[in-house]
Amino acid sequence: MAQLWGGRFTKETDELVYKFNASISFDKRFYAQDIRGSIAHVMMLAKQGILTETEKEEIIAGLTGILEDVREGSLEITEEYEDIHSFVEAALIERIGDAGKKLHTGRSRNDQVALDMKLYAREEALLLDRQVKEVLLAIYDIMEENLETYMPGFTHLQKAQPITLAHHMGAYFEMFKRDHERLQDIYRRMNTCPLGSGALAGTTYPLDRQYTAAILGFDGPTLNSMDGVSDRDYLLELLSALSIIMMHLSRFCEEVIIWNSNEYQFVEIDDAYSTGSSIMPQKKNPDIAELVRGKTGRVYGALNSLLVTMKGLPLAYNKDMQEDKEWAFDAIDNVKGCLMLFAGMLRTMQFRKERMEESAKHGFTNATDAADYLVNHGVPFRDAHGIVGRLVLTCIEKGIALDDLSLEEYRKISPVFKEDIYEAISLKTCVGKRVTTGAPGPAAMQEALNIYKRYLEEY
Asked: Distance between CA atoms of 54 and 212, rounded to whole angstroms?
């Protein structure tokens, strides 16, 4: 068992206890971040005269060699080490001798792991943000092509009023736009460097923490050493943002699943993003959409687990915090996979425009506009509401849409109706006269598209 401590102990740690305590099985993912942080630390130690230039060059060469060998697969990170920090330091000492023993001067594993996690979370936040942009680009393209693709808008999963596919997609553009802004905001707030905090109370060595922070691309050092080693707010914020991203993906996937059903037939999911049944040859299942919806629960679980772990911890570092890694890794991996697959599914999905339009008509989504027609001809709204309700009931009995009802039947219920009722309740008219900002009318939607285009260009 390779560990960085032991002088105070009189016997070996029980093997089961050692394995329970060790984190190498998962924190080996940090090897690049750990080495990067160590190189920055060594550069600072030499600048401050704590290490000689020769020692600095020797240690950096050794660390760089370890990094390259791990990447190439010629050096394996094995579980005989307690954690990634133990592995890197032991490998360095084995390669360069006593100079490697000076690597840990002026730091603790507490601030070291805090740095590794921040470097990792910062990098992953940028990668996730780029994947959110891919989803936004896919949504934008669908919007641009479907300004006049009419479909029903829903409330309570009941057909309500006519909209366009562009308008429906625009709602999701707004959601993922906010996700992008959350990730940017979290990145800015997490961008302080904990290295130099020591175990909890800093160090007596004359460290230049601003210099270390600058080398690693941070805005500056953390200003309280106890908070520096025990802060996991940035992870909670990241997991919260990822949970919201997954909520948006899950809502979208739920609609795709409904739209893909035999009853709706609004979309055709590409074969590459569907699977079949082992027994029913006719089936084409929206498995990717269902899995994205299902994996949302895993990401929520990671956020809840870390919140519960952190809620009772006294300052400063506690071993409980080691649990943050597996949850964060799992959540990040799942969200990246879901975003990538969802963007691909969206780009290859075919929309059945005629089916959508017919559904809007036969769902009586233009009923409100028929009532507005009466109001505009002097009928009180409450009376107009009742008249159109009777019209809808007639259509249901006949199995037709309001557009298919004869003028004679219209006038039988109210003599106010004239020939222009058909133009007034056409989907094009119903959508087109909704011109306020945020509405589905083509002018309002084009205004939104222009804003979204500039937004994506500046992303």
From this structure: 19
Cα–Cα distance, 8 to 126 (Å, whole number): 43
Annotated catalytic residue 85: no
Is 225 among the catalytic positions?
no
The active-site residue, picked from 167, 225, 277, 278, is 277
- CB contact at 8 A, 298 and 334: yes
Alpha-carbon span 31 to 70, nearest angstrom = 8
As beta bridge partners, residue 2 has 81
- 121-146: pLDDT as tens digits: 999 999 999 999 999 999 999 999 99
Residues found in the chain:
459
- Angle at the Cα of 77 (from 71 to 78), degrees rounded to 5? 160
Phi, psi of 8, rounded to the nearest 5 degrees: -85, -10
pLDDT at 5 over 50: no
The pLDDT score that the predictor gives to residue 281 is 72
In the three-class reduction of DSSP (H, G, I as helix; E, B as strand; rest coil), residue 176 is classed as helix
Active-site annotation holder among 156, 225, 240, 250: 156
**In sequence order, which residues have a C-beta less than 8 Å from that of residue 274 and are 6 or more positions away?**
284, 285, 286, 287, 288
The phi-psi region of residue 262 (left if phi > 0; otherwise alpha if psi is between -120 and 50; otherwise beta) is alpha
CB atoms within 10 A of CB 293: 20
Task: Give buried/exposed letters for 385-413 (b at 16+ CB in 10 A, else e).
Answer: eebbeebbebbeeeeebbeebeeeebeeb
Question: CA 427, 431, 432 angle in degrees (round to 5)?
Answer: 110
Answer whether 329's CB lies under 8 Å from 120's CB. no
**pLDDT digits 0-9 by tens, 368-382:** 999 999 999 999 999
Task: Please name the residues in contact with 137: beta carbons below 8 A apart, sequence gap of 6 or more.
Answer: 343, 456
